[in-house]
């Protein structure tokens, strides 16, 4: 196996940085549809680069290059930093509340990525796993009152530091078939909403909200009723 293929895997991961830049440029132009398309593509890249790297044993074959560190850098940019800007500019907040909300997202997300306890034995996350890209998308689509946006932001920023479990949609085995089905529903609904340029019925908005509540709440439910 040529090393060029192994480096290509790292390049695939690093392409998330380019997608983050494109998303940020779209945000600067208030082109929300393009911004979420770029972030969606970054989410896809993040979903496939890890399995490819593990299958090709990139860590073992390129020991001088830390794919995990690279992944953290990209994830922070696409999961936290760019969504924080969208939260400040596109979710109904303004002035100091907008700056405060974005700052809470950026700081809590940065600290979370440094927490060595984030991964649990069952592959769930300890604390809210900085999935602000999905949260901000839901807030943008539903467009709730600014007070609700701020309350959600504060609650999730606090949950970042609490021992509450959040699932990994693919790796957590408990209820995996249901979780995969709900995750697929979330992504299909999100694609539909973006394709329609956010002009969708309350039914689609309700599906997005219901799927989001499951994805971000099922870990706590499992923790309560099936503790490990």
Compile the SSE list and pairings.
Blueprint: H1 3-28, H2 32-56, H3 58-61, H4 67-90, H5 95-113, E1 125-126, H6 132-142, H7 146-159, E2 165-166, H8 176-195, H9 202-225
Antiparallel strand pairs: 1-2
Molecular structure report:
This protein is mainly alpha-helical and 228 residues long. The protein has a single domain (3-225), classed as Four Helix Bundle (Hemerythrin (Met), subunit A). The protein is built from nine helices and two strands. It has helices at 3-28, 32-56, 58-61, 67-90, 95-113, 132-142, 146-159, 176-195, 202-225, and strands spanning 125-126, 165-166. It has a two-stranded antiparallel sheet. Helix 1 (3-28) packs antiparallel against helix 2 (32-56) and helix 4 packs parallel to helix 6 (132-142). The model has no long low-confidence stretch (mean pLDDT 91).
Report the average pLDDT across residues: 91
Number of helices: 9
Please report which band the strand proportion falls in: under 5%, 5-15%, 15-25%, 25-35%, 35-45% or over 45%.
under 5%
Query: What structural class should be given to the helix and strand makeup?
Result: mainly alpha
Count the E strands. 2
Estimate percent helicity: over 70%
The CATH topology corresponds to Four Helix Bundle (Hemerythrin (Met), subunit A)
Low-confidence residue ranges: none
Total domain units:
1
Distance between the termini: 41 Å
Strand order of the largest sheet: 1-2
Using the 3D structure, state the CATH architecture.
Answer: Up-down Bundle
């Amino acid at each position: 196996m040529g090393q060029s293929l192994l480096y290509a895997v790292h390049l695939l991961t690093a392409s998330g940085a380019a997608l983050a830049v494109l998303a940020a440029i779209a945000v600067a132009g208030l082109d929300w549809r393009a911004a979420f398309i770029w972030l969606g593509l970054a989410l896809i890249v993040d979903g496939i680069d890890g399995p490819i790297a593990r299958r090709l044993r990139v860590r073992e074959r390129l020991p001088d290059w830390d794919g995990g560190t690279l992944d953290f850098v990209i994830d922070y940019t696409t999961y936290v930093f760019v969504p924080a800007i969208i939260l400040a500019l596109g979710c109904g907040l303004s002035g100091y509340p907008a700056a405060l909300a974005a700052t809470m997202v950026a700081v809590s997300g940065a600290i979370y990525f440094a927490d060595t306890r984030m991964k649990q034995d069952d592959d769930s996350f300890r604390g809210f796993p900085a999935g602000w890209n999905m949260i901000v998308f839901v807030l943008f689509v539903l467009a709730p009152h600014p007070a609700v946006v701020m309350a959600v932001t504060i609650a999730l920023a606090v949950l970042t530091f609490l021992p509450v479990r959040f699932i990994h949609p693919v790796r957590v085995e408990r209820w995996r078939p249901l979780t995969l089905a709900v995750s697929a529903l979330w992504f299909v609904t999100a694609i539909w909403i973006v394709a329609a340029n956010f002009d969708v019925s309350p039914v689609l908005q309700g599906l997005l909200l219901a799927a989001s509540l499951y994805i971000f709440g099922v870990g706590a439910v499992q923790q309560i009723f099936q503790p490990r």
